[in-house]
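Reminder to self: tokens first, then the designed residues, so the page reads top to bottom the way the pipeline ran.
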């Protein structure tokens, strides 16, 4: 039976190199590790900090017959996780995602992170570049009208400062995501002139058709 993933988790799974050593941090249901197993991955550690999610994870691993290749671990973030090639952190806040990465003790050239922040992606991008991690590309996933960005990142060791525009848009070029970010900036712009200025700049770059999309989006939230 094929593991069924929604567009958010499918986008995450597509960015992982199945031939490598993988970790899924905050796995909960472990559906991504089980799908990666079906796609050929043979060395996956799925972690969670809480018992309930780990019980759900164990059920999935058993259901999909992945016990030999998907090992479950109870830990905080990457604590005690052995060296990996690809680390997935999906479904957590941007700041928590950055905190977990900042405590990684196997940061080395070529290590990849597949990240899907639920909130504060602009803080995550700033902190990634502060830590010497670059975004290779980003892709949008839409589930029940909710818009997510999924980032494929790699440790390069080159620490860089990011500007506000990059922190908000990153390398995501999809119009849905741009519109979501403009709305977020406009909201925050009430208390920050920099945010308001960026919202205006991004809005001025939209085509007439895209402006209609922005209005529709604003009306729907
Ligand atoms: C919203 S769920 C996301 C599950 C899955 N990754 C997804 O994207 O659908 C977040 C999970 O992260 C776990 N979690 C929260 N903080 C954690 C931490 N510091 N280390 C490991 N897991 C954590 C929670 O217990 C929960 O199961």
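Designed residues (221 positions):
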């Amino acid at each position: 039976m094929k593991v069924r993933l929604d567009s958010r988790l499918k986008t995450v799974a597509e960015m992982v190199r199945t031939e490598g050593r993988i970790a899924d941090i905050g796995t909960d249901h472990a559906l991504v590790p089980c799908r990666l197993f079906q796609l050929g991955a043979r060395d996956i550690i799925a972690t969670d900090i809480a018992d309930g999610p780990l019980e759900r994870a164990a059920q999935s691993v058993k259901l999909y017959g992945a016990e030999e290749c998907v090992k479950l671990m109870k830990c905080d973030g990457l604590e005690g996780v052995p060296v990996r090639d690809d680390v997935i952190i999906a479904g957590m806040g941007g700041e928590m995602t950055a905190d977990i990465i900042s405590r990684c003790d196997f940061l080395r050239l070529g290590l990849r992170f597949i990240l899907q922040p639920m909130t504060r992606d602009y803080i995550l991008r700033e902190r990634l570049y502060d830590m010497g991690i670059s975004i290779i590309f980003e892709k949008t996933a839409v589930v029940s009208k909710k818009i997510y960005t999924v980032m494929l990142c790699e440790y390069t060791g080159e620490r860089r400062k990011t500007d506000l525009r990059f922190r908000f848009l990153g390398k995501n070029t999809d119009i849905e995501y741009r519109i979501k970010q403009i709305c977020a900036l406009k909201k925050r712009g009430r208390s920050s002139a920099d945010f308001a200025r960026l919202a205006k700049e991004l809005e001025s770059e939209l085509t007439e058709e895209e402006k209609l999309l922005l209005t529709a989006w604003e009306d729907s939230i």
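Residues 25-28, 47-50, 53, 76-77, 90-92, 100 surround S-adenosylmethionine (CB under 6 Å).
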